[in-house]
Protein backbone atom coordinates (compact mmCIF):
# COMPACT_ATOMS: atom_id res chain seq x y z
CA UNK A 1 0.00 0.00 0.00
CA UNK A 2 2.84 2.36 1.08
CA UNK A 3 4.84 1.44 -1.98
CA UNK A 4 1.98 2.18 -4.38
CA UNK A 5 1.39 5.53 -2.62
CA UNK A 6 5.06 6.41 -2.98
CA UNK A 7 4.91 5.42 -6.64
CA UNK A 8 1.84 7.56 -7.12
CA UNK A 9 3.40 10.51 -5.34
CA UNK A 10 6.64 10.23 -7.21
CA UNK A 11 4.91 9.82 -10.56
CA UNK A 12 2.63 12.74 -9.70
CA UNK A 13 5.66 14.79 -8.81
CA UNK A 14 7.47 13.94 -12.02
CA UNK A 15 4.40 14.86 -14.07
CA UNK A 16 4.11 18.26 -12.37
CA UNK A 17 7.88 18.89 -12.82
CA UNK A 18 7.58 17.98 -16.48
CA UNK A 19 4.57 20.20 -16.83
CA UNK A 20 6.37 23.05 -15.09
CA UNK A 21 9.39 22.63 -17.36
CA UNK A 22 7.26 22.67 -20.51
CA UNK A 23 5.46 25.71 -19.19
CA UNK A 24 8.74 27.55 -18.57
CA UNK A 25 10.08 26.66 -22.03
CA UNK A 26 6.79 27.70 -23.60
CA UNK A 27 6.84 31.01 -21.74
CA UNK A 28 10.46 31.72 -22.76
CA UNK A 29 9.55 30.89 -26.37
CA UNK A 30 6.51 33.15 -26.16
CA UNK A 31 8.48 36.02 -24.64
CA UNK A 32 11.06 35.71 -27.46
CA UNK A 33 8.37 35.70 -30.12
CA UNK A 34 6.57 38.66 -28.54
CA UNK A 35 9.89 40.53 -28.19
CA UNK A 36 10.80 39.80 -31.82
CA UNK A 37 7.44 40.91 -33.14
CA UNK A 38 7.47 43.96 -30.87
CA UNK A 39 10.90 44.89 -32.18
CA UNK A 40 9.73 44.38 -35.76
CA UNK A 41 6.62 46.43 -35.19
CA UNK A 42 8.53 49.14 -33.40
CA UNK A 43 11.34 49.17 -35.99
CA UNK A 44 14.93 49.07 -34.87
CA UNK A 45 17.11 51.73 -36.49
CA UNK A 46 18.77 50.57 -39.74
CA UNK A 47 22.28 49.14 -39.62
CA UNK A 48 24.60 46.38 -40.80
CA UNK A 49 23.42 42.81 -40.20
CA UNK A 50 26.62 41.49 -38.63
CA UNK A 51 27.70 37.92 -37.97
CA UNK A 52 26.52 35.49 -35.30
CA UNK A 53 28.25 36.00 -31.95
CA UNK A 54 30.65 38.75 -33.09
CA UNK A 55 27.98 40.94 -34.70
CA UNK A 56 29.50 43.94 -36.50
CA UNK A 57 32.67 44.07 -34.40
CA UNK A 58 34.99 43.45 -37.40
CA UNK A 59 33.57 46.58 -39.07
CA UNK A 60 34.98 48.84 -36.36
CA UNK A 61 38.65 48.47 -37.36
CA UNK A 62 41.43 50.48 -35.66
CA UNK A 63 39.53 53.75 -35.81
CA UNK A 64 35.97 53.02 -34.67
CA UNK A 65 34.92 56.69 -34.90
CA UNK A 66 35.98 56.78 -38.59
CA UNK A 67 34.32 53.46 -39.42
CA UNK A 68 31.09 54.41 -37.63
CA UNK A 69 31.03 57.75 -39.43
CA UNK A 70 31.28 55.99 -42.81
CA UNK A 71 28.63 53.45 -41.79
CA UNK A 72 26.34 56.33 -40.75
CA UNK A 73 26.59 57.72 -44.27
CA UNK A 74 25.32 54.37 -45.51
CA UNK A 75 22.65 53.61 -42.87
CA UNK A 76 21.72 57.02 -41.49
CA UNK A 77 22.30 59.20 -38.41
CA UNK A 78 20.78 56.65 -36.05
CA UNK A 79 22.11 53.14 -36.51
CA UNK A 80 21.53 49.88 -34.76
CA UNK A 81 24.21 47.23 -34.72
CA UNK A 82 25.31 44.32 -32.65
CA UNK A 83 28.78 44.66 -31.19
CA UNK A 84 29.39 41.10 -30.14
CA UNK A 85 25.98 40.21 -28.80
CA UNK A 86 25.39 43.68 -27.36
CA UNK A 87 22.61 45.90 -28.71
CA UNK A 88 24.32 49.11 -29.76
CA UNK A 89 22.86 52.35 -31.05
CA UNK A 90 25.16 54.84 -32.75
CA UNK A 91 24.04 58.42 -33.17
CA UNK A 92 25.71 60.74 -35.69
CA UNK A 93 23.58 63.86 -36.02
CA UNK A 94 23.12 66.85 -33.68
CA UNK A 95 19.33 66.51 -33.81
CA UNK A 96 19.33 62.87 -32.71
CA UNK A 97 22.12 63.46 -30.18
CA UNK A 98 19.86 66.11 -28.65
CA UNK A 99 16.92 63.69 -28.63
CA UNK A 100 19.05 61.21 -26.65
CA UNK A 101 21.13 63.45 -24.38
CA UNK A 102 18.55 66.16 -23.73
CA UNK A 103 14.99 64.98 -24.37
CA UNK A 104 15.67 61.42 -23.13
CA UNK A 105 18.58 62.38 -20.89
CA UNK A 106 17.27 60.60 -17.81
CA UNK A 107 16.86 57.31 -19.66
CA UNK A 108 20.48 57.47 -20.88
CA UNK A 109 22.05 58.61 -17.63
CA UNK A 110 23.91 55.43 -16.72
CA UNK A 111 26.90 53.91 -18.42
CA UNK A 112 27.64 50.32 -19.39
CA UNK A 113 30.51 49.05 -17.25
CA UNK A 114 33.52 47.38 -18.80
CA UNK A 115 36.15 44.92 -17.59
CA UNK A 116 38.61 47.79 -17.24
CA UNK A 117 36.30 49.87 -15.07
CA UNK A 118 35.34 46.78 -13.10
CA UNK A 119 38.78 45.32 -12.44
CA UNK A 120 40.91 48.48 -12.38
CA UNK A 121 38.31 51.04 -11.30
CA UNK A 122 36.98 49.53 -8.07
CA UNK A 123 33.96 47.84 -9.63
CA UNK A 124 32.59 51.04 -11.21
CA UNK A 125 32.55 52.99 -7.93
CA UNK A 126 34.19 56.12 -9.38
CA UNK A 127 32.16 59.10 -10.54
CA UNK A 128 32.67 58.38 -14.25
CA UNK A 129 31.10 54.94 -14.29
CA UNK A 130 28.87 54.92 -11.20
CA UNK A 131 25.26 54.04 -12.11
CA UNK A 132 22.91 57.02 -12.15
CA UNK A 133 21.35 57.42 -8.70
CA UNK A 134 21.94 58.86 -5.21
CA UNK A 135 25.55 57.65 -4.91
CA UNK A 136 26.54 59.23 -8.24
CA UNK A 137 24.66 62.44 -7.32
CA UNK A 138 26.55 62.61 -4.05
CA UNK A 139 29.91 62.27 -5.86
CA UNK A 140 29.00 65.00 -8.38
CA UNK A 141 27.93 67.31 -5.57
CA UNK A 142 31.21 66.81 -3.65
CA UNK A 143 33.28 67.37 -6.79
CA UNK A 144 31.34 70.50 -7.72
CA UNK A 145 31.58 72.09 -4.30
CA UNK A 146 35.21 71.26 -3.62
CA UNK A 147 36.82 71.20 -7.07
CA UNK A 148 34.91 72.43 -10.07
CA UNK A 149 32.39 75.15 -9.28
CA UNK A 150 32.79 78.91 -8.76
CA UNK A 151 34.78 79.54 -5.60
CA UNK A 152 36.70 76.26 -5.50
CA UNK A 153 37.74 76.67 -9.11
CA UNK A 154 38.87 80.25 -8.46
CA UNK A 155 40.67 79.35 -5.23
CA UNK A 156 42.66 76.68 -7.06
CA UNK A 157 43.87 79.10 -9.69
CA UNK A 158 47.35 79.60 -8.09
CA UNK A 159 47.91 75.84 -8.26
CA UNK A 160 47.23 75.77 -12.00
CA UNK A 161 49.35 78.86 -12.49
CA UNK A 162 52.26 77.34 -10.56
CA UNK A 163 52.21 74.09 -12.53
CA UNK A 164 52.05 75.98 -15.84
CA UNK A 165 55.13 77.82 -14.52
CA UNK A 166 56.86 74.45 -14.05
CA UNK A 167 55.95 73.57 -17.63
CA UNK A 168 57.55 76.78 -18.92
CA UNK A 169 60.64 76.08 -16.89
CA UNK A 170 61.09 72.60 -18.35
CA UNK A 171 60.55 73.86 -21.91
CA UNK A 172 63.07 76.59 -21.19
CA UNK A 173 65.59 73.98 -19.99
CA UNK A 174 65.27 72.37 -23.42
CA UNK A 175 65.68 75.74 -25.11
CA UNK A 176 68.88 76.46 -23.18
CA UNK A 177 70.30 73.11 -24.23
CA UNK A 178 69.07 73.68 -27.80
CA UNK A 179 67.03 70.51 -27.58
CA UNK A 180 63.67 69.86 -29.26
CA UNK A 181 60.74 69.20 -26.93
CA UNK A 182 58.24 66.34 -26.93
CA UNK A 183 55.39 68.73 -26.22
CA UNK A 184 52.64 66.14 -25.63
CA UNK A 185 54.77 64.51 -22.96
CA UNK A 186 55.40 67.73 -21.04
CA UNK A 187 51.76 68.79 -21.35
CA UNK A 188 50.69 65.47 -19.91
CA UNK A 189 53.07 65.87 -16.98
CA UNK A 190 51.69 69.38 -16.39
CA UNK A 191 48.00 68.42 -16.36
CA UNK A 192 48.56 65.33 -14.19
CA UNK A 193 50.54 67.42 -11.72
CA UNK A 194 47.82 70.05 -11.52
CA UNK A 195 45.40 67.28 -10.52
CA UNK A 196 48.00 65.66 -8.25
CA UNK A 197 48.54 68.93 -6.40
CA UNK A 198 44.83 69.69 -6.10
CA UNK A 199 43.88 66.22 -4.91
CA UNK A 200 46.94 64.98 -3.01
CA UNK A 201 49.25 68.01 -2.58
CA UNK A 202 51.73 66.05 -4.62
CA UNK A 203 53.35 66.28 -8.04
CA UNK A 204 52.42 62.77 -9.17
CA UNK A 205 54.13 62.89 -12.57
CA UNK A 206 57.60 64.23 -11.91
CA UNK A 207 60.15 62.72 -14.24
CA UNK A 208 62.44 62.35 -11.23
CA UNK A 209 61.46 60.55 -8.05
CA UNK A 210 60.38 56.94 -7.92
CA UNK A 211 56.80 57.38 -6.66
CA UNK A 212 55.97 59.88 -9.36
CA UNK A 213 57.56 57.76 -12.08
CA UNK A 214 55.72 54.69 -10.81
CA UNK A 215 52.34 56.46 -10.79
CA UNK A 216 52.89 57.80 -14.27
CA UNK A 217 53.65 54.31 -15.58
CA UNK A 218 50.42 53.06 -14.03
CA UNK A 219 48.33 55.80 -15.62
CA UNK A 220 49.82 55.11 -19.05
CA UNK A 221 49.12 51.39 -18.64
CA UNK A 222 45.57 52.14 -17.56
CA UNK A 223 44.90 54.30 -20.61
CA UNK A 224 46.14 51.49 -22.85
CA UNK A 225 44.03 48.81 -21.16
CA UNK A 226 40.89 50.94 -20.88
CA UNK A 227 41.10 51.95 -24.54
CA UNK A 228 40.81 48.35 -25.81
CA UNK A 229 37.59 46.74 -27.05
CA UNK A 230 37.33 43.69 -24.81
CA UNK A 231 35.56 40.67 -26.28
CA UNK A 232 34.05 39.60 -22.94
CA UNK A 233 32.42 43.03 -22.52
CA UNK A 234 30.58 42.68 -25.81
CA UNK A 235 29.94 38.93 -25.72
CA UNK A 236 29.23 38.45 -22.00
CA UNK A 237 28.84 34.68 -22.41
CA UNK A 238 32.55 34.51 -23.33
CA UNK A 239 33.77 36.81 -20.55
CA UNK A 240 34.84 33.91 -18.31
CA UNK A 241 37.38 32.76 -20.92
CA UNK A 242 39.28 36.08 -20.88
CA UNK A 243 40.28 35.46 -24.50
CA UNK A 244 42.70 38.41 -24.67
CA UNK A 245 44.35 37.52 -21.36
CA UNK A 246 43.82 41.03 -20.01
CA UNK A 247 42.09 40.28 -16.74
CA UNK A 248 45.22 39.39 -14.79
CA UNK A 249 46.97 42.51 -16.14
CA UNK A 250 44.04 44.64 -14.99
CA UNK A 251 43.95 43.05 -11.56
CA UNK A 252 47.68 43.51 -11.20
CA UNK A 253 47.41 47.17 -12.19
CA UNK A 254 44.50 47.65 -9.79
CA UNK A 255 46.61 46.28 -6.93
CA UNK A 256 49.41 48.74 -7.70
CA UNK A 257 46.99 51.68 -7.86
CA UNK A 258 45.35 50.51 -4.67
CA UNK A 259 48.66 50.28 -2.89
CA UNK A 260 49.58 53.83 -4.02
CA UNK A 261 46.21 55.35 -3.10
CA UNK A 262 46.10 53.52 0.26
CA UNK A 263 49.51 55.03 1.02
CA UNK A 264 48.11 58.48 0.18
CA UNK A 265 45.13 57.92 2.48
CA UNK A 266 47.47 56.82 5.28
CA UNK A 267 49.44 60.06 4.91
CA UNK A 268 46.24 62.10 5.07
CA UNK A 269 44.76 60.21 8.04
CA UNK A 270 46.96 61.90 10.56
CA UNK A 271 47.19 65.44 9.18
CA UNK A 272 45.29 67.55 6.69
CA UNK A 273 47.49 68.46 3.71
CA UNK A 274 47.17 71.88 2.14
CA UNK A 275 47.96 73.35 -1.23
CA UNK A 276 47.88 77.09 -1.85
CA UNK A 277 46.52 77.61 1.69
CA UNK A 278 43.58 75.27 1.04
CA UNK A 279 43.07 71.66 2.18
CA UNK A 280 43.70 69.27 -0.70
CA UNK A 281 40.77 67.22 -2.04
CA UNK A 282 41.76 64.02 -0.23
CA UNK A 283 41.94 65.90 3.08
CA UNK A 284 38.49 67.33 2.39
CA UNK A 285 37.10 63.87 1.62
CA UNK A 286 38.74 62.39 4.69
CA UNK A 287 37.30 65.08 6.96
CA UNK A 288 33.83 64.73 5.45
CA UNK A 289 33.72 60.96 5.00
CA UNK A 290 31.10 60.27 7.69
CA UNK A 291 28.67 62.92 6.46
CA UNK A 292 29.83 64.01 3.06
CA UNK A 293 26.88 65.97 1.81
CA UNK A 294 25.27 67.18 5.00
CA UNK A 295 22.63 64.47 4.49
CA UNK A 296 24.43 61.60 6.14
CA UNK A 297 26.13 60.38 2.95
CA UNK A 298 29.17 58.22 3.73
CA UNK A 299 32.33 57.44 1.82
CA UNK A 300 34.40 54.31 2.44
CA UNK A 301 38.14 54.14 1.73
CA UNK A 302 37.30 52.28 -1.48
CA UNK A 303 34.86 55.01 -2.59
CA UNK A 304 37.55 57.63 -1.99
CA UNK A 305 40.20 55.72 -3.91
CA UNK A 306 37.82 55.06 -6.81
CA UNK A 307 36.89 58.73 -6.99
CA UNK A 308 40.50 59.91 -7.04
CA UNK A 309 41.49 57.35 -9.64
CA UNK A 310 38.68 58.22 -12.04
CA UNK A 311 39.35 61.96 -11.72
CA UNK A 312 42.98 61.41 -12.71
CA UNK A 313 41.93 59.29 -15.66
CA UNK A 314 39.22 61.67 -16.83
CA UNK A 315 41.17 64.90 -16.43
CA UNK A 316 44.74 64.30 -17.53
CA UNK A 317 44.96 63.12 -21.14
CA UNK A 318 41.78 64.88 -22.29
CA UNK A 319 43.25 68.25 -21.37
CA UNK A 320 46.84 67.71 -22.51
CA UNK A 321 45.91 66.15 -25.87
CA UNK A 322 43.63 69.10 -26.67
CA UNK A 323 46.50 71.55 -26.18
CA UNK A 324 48.81 69.34 -28.26
CA UNK A 325 46.31 69.31 -31.15
CA UNK A 326 45.82 73.09 -30.89
CA UNK A 327 49.56 73.76 -31.11
CA UNK A 328 49.88 71.31 -34.02
CA UNK A 329 47.12 73.17 -35.91
CA UNK A 330 48.70 76.55 -35.17
CA UNK A 331 52.09 75.34 -36.41
CA UNK A 332 50.37 74.29 -39.63
CA UNK A 333 48.73 77.73 -39.80
CA UNK A 334 51.48 80.22 -38.86
CA UNK A 335 49.29 83.23 -39.61
CA UNK A 336 46.83 82.03 -36.93
CA UNK A 337 49.67 81.46 -34.46
CA UNK A 338 50.83 85.07 -35.08
CA UNK A 339 47.29 86.36 -34.66
CA UNK A 340 47.00 84.62 -31.27
CA UNK A 341 50.36 86.00 -30.16
CA UNK A 342 49.42 89.53 -31.25
CA UNK A 343 46.16 89.27 -29.36
CA UNK A 344 47.92 88.08 -26.19
CA UNK A 345 50.63 90.77 -26.50
CA UNK A 346 47.99 93.48 -26.85
CA UNK A 347 46.06 92.24 -23.80
CA UNK A 348 49.33 92.22 -21.79
CA UNK A 349 49.99 95.83 -22.92
CA UNK A 350 53.74 95.44 -22.52
CA UNK A 351 53.51 94.32 -18.88
CA UNK A 352 56.42 92.09 -17.89
CA UNK A 353 54.47 89.14 -16.57
CA UNK A 354 53.02 85.80 -17.52
CA UNK A 355 49.45 85.27 -18.71
CA UNK A 356 46.92 84.95 -15.88
CA UNK A 357 43.50 83.29 -15.90
CA UNK A 358 41.87 86.71 -15.58
CA UNK A 359 43.31 87.60 -19.03
CA UNK A 360 41.59 84.69 -20.75
CA UNK A 361 38.17 86.27 -21.20
CA UNK A 362 39.77 89.05 -23.28
CA UNK A 363 41.43 86.56 -25.64
CA UNK A 364 38.50 86.06 -27.99
CA UNK A 365 40.52 84.77 -30.94
CA UNK A 366 42.36 82.28 -28.73
CA UNK A 367 38.99 81.08 -27.43
CA UNK A 368 37.88 80.55 -31.02
CA UNK A 369 41.07 78.55 -31.68
CA UNK A 370 40.25 76.35 -28.68
CA UNK A 371 36.67 75.77 -29.86
CA UNK A 372 37.85 74.91 -33.35
CA UNK A 373 40.34 72.46 -31.85
CA UNK A 374 37.54 70.82 -29.86
CA UNK A 375 35.51 70.57 -33.07
CA UNK A 376 38.16 68.91 -35.21
CA UNK A 377 40.00 66.98 -32.49
CA UNK A 378 37.59 66.01 -29.69
CA UNK A 379 39.64 64.13 -27.10
CA UNK A 380 36.93 61.46 -26.64
CA UNK A 381 35.56 61.08 -30.18
CA UNK A 382 32.70 58.75 -29.18
CA UNK A 383 32.17 60.57 -25.85
CA UNK A 384 31.68 57.97 -23.10
CA UNK A 385 29.06 55.26 -23.68
CA UNK A 386 25.60 55.47 -22.11
CA UNK A 387 23.05 52.78 -21.35
CA UNK A 388 19.31 52.78 -22.10
CA UNK A 389 17.73 52.18 -18.68
CA UNK A 390 14.41 51.35 -20.37
CA UNK A 391 13.32 50.66 -23.92
CA UNK A 392 12.38 53.92 -25.60
CA UNK A 393 11.63 55.50 -28.94
CA UNK A 394 14.01 57.89 -30.69
CA UNK A 395 13.09 59.37 -34.08
CA UNK A 396 10.36 56.75 -34.42
CA UNK A 397 12.84 53.90 -33.87
CA UNK A 398 12.70 51.35 -31.09
CA UNK A 399 15.72 51.42 -28.74
CA UNK A 400 15.86 48.23 -26.66
CA UNK A 401 16.36 48.30 -22.90
CA UNK A 402 20.05 48.01 -21.96
CA UNK A 403 21.20 49.06 -25.43
CA UNK A 404 24.58 50.78 -25.41
CA UNK A 405 24.43 54.32 -26.80
CA UNK A 406 27.43 55.77 -28.59
CA UNK A 407 27.38 59.37 -29.81
CA UNK A 408 29.88 59.96 -32.60
CA UNK A 409 30.82 63.54 -31.70
CA UNK A 410 33.88 63.30 -33.98
CA UNK A 411 31.64 62.38 -36.93
CA UNK A 412 29.08 65.13 -36.28
CA UNK A 413 31.79 67.71 -35.87
CA UNK A 414 33.27 66.89 -39.28
CA UNK A 415 30.04 66.31 -41.14
CA UNK A 416 29.56 68.41 -44.32
CA UNK A 417 25.80 68.30 -43.66
CA UNK A 418 26.46 70.18 -40.42
CA UNK A 419 29.54 72.33 -41.11
CA UNK A 420 30.80 74.27 -44.10
CA UNK A 421 34.32 73.26 -45.18
CA UNK A 422 34.31 70.79 -42.26
CA UNK A 423 37.89 69.58 -42.62
CA UNK A 424 39.40 73.05 -42.67
CA UNK A 425 40.83 74.38 -39.41
CA UNK A 426 39.17 77.79 -39.32
CA UNK A 427 38.74 79.44 -35.88
CA UNK A 428 36.94 82.36 -37.57
CA UNK A 429 33.80 80.23 -37.74
CA UNK A 430 33.51 80.76 -33.98
CA UNK A 431 34.42 84.46 -33.94
CA UNK A 432 31.28 86.48 -33.20
CA UNK A 433 29.24 83.26 -33.13
CA UNK A 434 27.07 82.15 -30.22
CA UNK A 435 27.83 78.48 -30.81
CA UNK A 436 29.41 77.10 -27.66
CA UNK A 437 31.08 73.81 -26.84
CA UNK A 438 29.57 73.36 -23.36
CA UNK A 439 26.78 70.97 -24.20
CA UNK A 440 23.96 73.21 -25.36
CA UNK A 441 24.78 73.34 -29.10
CA UNK A 442 24.68 69.78 -30.25
CA UNK A 443 26.73 70.29 -33.42
CA UNK A 444 29.83 70.49 -31.20
CA UNK A 445 29.78 68.59 -27.91
CA UNK A 446 33.37 67.67 -26.96
CA UNK A 447 32.34 67.53 -23.27
CA UNK A 448 29.15 65.54 -23.95
CA UNK A 449 25.79 66.85 -22.75
CA UNK A 450 22.98 66.27 -20.26
CA UNK A 451 23.25 65.03 -16.70
CA UNK A 452 26.44 63.08 -17.36
CA UNK A 453 28.21 65.94 -19.15
CA UNK A 454 31.89 66.26 -18.21
CA UNK A 455 32.04 67.18 -14.52
CA UNK A 456 35.41 68.90 -14.95
CA UNK A 457 34.41 70.96 -18.00
CA UNK A 458 35.10 74.39 -16.46
CA UNK A 459 38.43 73.27 -15.08
CA UNK A 460 39.33 71.58 -18.40
CA UNK A 461 38.42 74.73 -20.36
CA UNK A 462 40.45 76.96 -18.09
CA UNK A 463 43.48 74.68 -18.20
CA UNK A 464 43.42 74.33 -21.98
CA UNK A 465 43.10 78.10 -22.50
CA UNK A 466 45.66 79.00 -19.83
CA UNK A 467 48.29 76.54 -21.03
CA UNK A 468 47.79 77.44 -24.68
CA UNK A 469 47.90 81.21 -24.06
CA UNK A 470 50.97 80.90 -21.81
CA UNK A 471 52.86 78.76 -24.34
CA UNK A 472 52.09 81.10 -27.24
CA UNK A 473 53.00 84.17 -25.18
CA UNK A 474 56.25 82.65 -23.95
CA UNK A 475 57.63 80.89 -27.01
CA UNK A 476 57.81 80.86 -30.76
CA UNK A 477 57.35 77.23 -31.64
CA UNK A 478 58.62 75.63 -34.82
CA UNK A 479 59.32 72.16 -36.17
CA UNK A 480 62.78 70.58 -35.93
CA UNK A 481 65.11 69.61 -38.79
CA UNK A 482 63.54 71.90 -41.34
CA UNK A 483 60.23 69.98 -41.34
CA UNK A 484 57.59 71.85 -43.32
CA UNK A 485 54.55 72.91 -41.27
CA UNK A 486 52.15 71.82 -44.02
CA UNK A 487 53.69 68.34 -43.90
CA UNK A 488 53.13 67.92 -40.15
CA UNK A 489 51.65 64.49 -39.49
CA UNK A 490 48.10 64.90 -38.11
CA UNK A 491 47.16 61.20 -38.00
CA UNK A 492 45.11 60.17 -34.97
CA UNK A 493 45.66 57.24 -32.63
CA UNK A 494 42.43 55.86 -31.12
CA UNK A 495 42.48 54.98 -27.45
CA UNK A 496 40.66 56.05 -24.34
CA UNK A 497 41.55 59.54 -25.57
CA UNK A 498 42.44 60.49 -29.12
CA UNK A 499 46.12 61.40 -29.40
CA UNK A 500 48.36 62.39 -32.23
CA UNK A 501 49.74 59.12 -33.53
CA UNK A 502 53.14 60.80 -34.01
CA UNK A 503 54.07 62.91 -30.98
CA UNK A 504 54.47 66.64 -31.60
CA UNK A 505 58.13 67.60 -31.34
CA UNK A 506 58.82 71.34 -31.37
CA UNK A 507 61.77 73.71 -31.13
CA UNK A 508 61.04 76.51 -28.64
CA UNK A 509 62.45 80.04 -28.87
CA UNK A 510 61.91 82.30 -25.86
CA UNK A 511 59.87 85.50 -26.41
CA UNK A 512 60.01 86.93 -22.87
CA UNK A 513 62.68 88.24 -20.50
CA UNK A 514 64.49 85.32 -18.87
CA UNK A 515 63.32 85.94 -15.29
CA UNK A 516 59.71 85.15 -16.34
CA UNK A 517 60.65 81.51 -16.95
CA UNK A 518 61.86 80.84 -13.41
C1 LIG B 1 39.58 69.29 -22.41
C2 LIG B 1 39.27 68.61 -21.39
C3 LIG B 1 38.17 67.59 -21.26
C4 LIG B 1 37.34 67.02 -22.19
C5 LIG B 1 37.31 67.29 -23.68
C6 LIG B 1 36.47 66.10 -21.48
C7 LIG B 1 35.49 65.34 -22.08
C8 LIG B 1 34.60 64.53 -21.39
C9 LIG B 1 33.52 63.77 -22.00
C10 LIG B 1 33.20 63.72 -23.47
C11 LIG B 1 32.87 63.13 -21.01
C12 LIG B 1 31.64 62.23 -21.17
C13 LIG B 1 30.40 63.10 -21.12
C14 LIG B 1 29.11 62.42 -21.49
O1 LIG B 1 28.94 61.22 -21.27
O2 LIG B 1 28.21 63.12 -21.98
C15 LIG B 1 33.52 63.45 -19.76
C16 LIG B 1 33.13 62.99 -18.53
C17 LIG B 1 33.78 63.31 -17.37
N1 LIG B 1 34.86 64.15 -17.21
FE1 LIG B 1 35.75 65.24 -18.65
N2 LIG B 1 36.79 66.14 -20.15
C18 LIG B 1 37.81 67.04 -19.97
C19 LIG B 1 38.42 67.38 -18.78
C20 LIG B 1 38.09 66.89 -17.56
C21 LIG B 1 38.72 67.25 -16.31
C22 LIG B 1 39.87 68.26 -16.15
C23 LIG B 1 38.13 66.52 -15.33
C24 LIG B 1 38.40 66.46 -13.86
C25 LIG B 1 39.52 66.55 -13.29
C26 LIG B 1 37.09 65.73 -15.96
C27 LIG B 1 36.23 64.89 -15.29
C28 LIG B 1 35.19 64.20 -15.89
C29 LIG B 1 34.28 63.36 -15.14
C30 LIG B 1 34.30 63.13 -13.64
C31 LIG B 1 33.39 62.80 -16.08
C32 LIG B 1 32.24 61.86 -15.79
C33 LIG B 1 30.99 62.63 -15.51
C34 LIG B 1 29.84 61.71 -15.11
O3 LIG B 1 29.74 60.60 -15.62
O4 LIG B 1 29.03 62.14 -14.29
N3 LIG B 1 37.10 65.97 -17.31
N4 LIG B 1 34.56 64.32 -20.01
UniProtKB/TrEMBL annotation:
InterPro entries: Cyt_P450, Cyt_P450_CS, Cyt_P450_E_grp-I, Cyt_P450_sf. SUPFAM superfamilies: Cytochrome P450 (SSF48264). Coiled coil: none annotated. The chain crosses the membrane at residues 12-34. GO terms for molecular function: heme binding; iron ion binding; monooxygenase activity; oxidoreductase activity, acting on paired donors, with incorporation or reduction of molecular oxygen. Heme binds at residue 454. Keywords: Heme, Iron, Membrane, Metal-binding, Monooxygenase, NADP, Oxidoreductase, Transmembrane, Transmembrane helix. Its cofactor is heme. PANTHER family: CYTOCHROME P450 98A9, FLAVONOID 3'-MONOOXYGENASE. Belongs to the cytochrome P450 family. This is Cytochrome P450 CYP75B95.
Amino acid sequence: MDASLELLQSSGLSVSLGQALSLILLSIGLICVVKQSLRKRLRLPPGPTGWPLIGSLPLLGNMPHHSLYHLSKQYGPIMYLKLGTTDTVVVSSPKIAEACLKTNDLNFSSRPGSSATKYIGYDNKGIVMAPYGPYWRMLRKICNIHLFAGKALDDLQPVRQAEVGMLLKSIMDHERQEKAVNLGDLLNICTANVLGQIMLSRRVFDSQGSTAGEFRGMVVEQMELAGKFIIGDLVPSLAWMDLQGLRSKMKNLHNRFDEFLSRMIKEHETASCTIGGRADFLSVLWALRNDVDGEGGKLTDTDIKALLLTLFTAGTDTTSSTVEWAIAELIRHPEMMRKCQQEIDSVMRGEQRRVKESDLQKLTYLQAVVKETFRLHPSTPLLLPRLAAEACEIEGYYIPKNARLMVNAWGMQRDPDVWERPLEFDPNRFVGSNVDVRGSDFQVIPFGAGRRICAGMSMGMRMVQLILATLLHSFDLSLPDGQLPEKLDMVEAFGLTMHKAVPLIVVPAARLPLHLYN
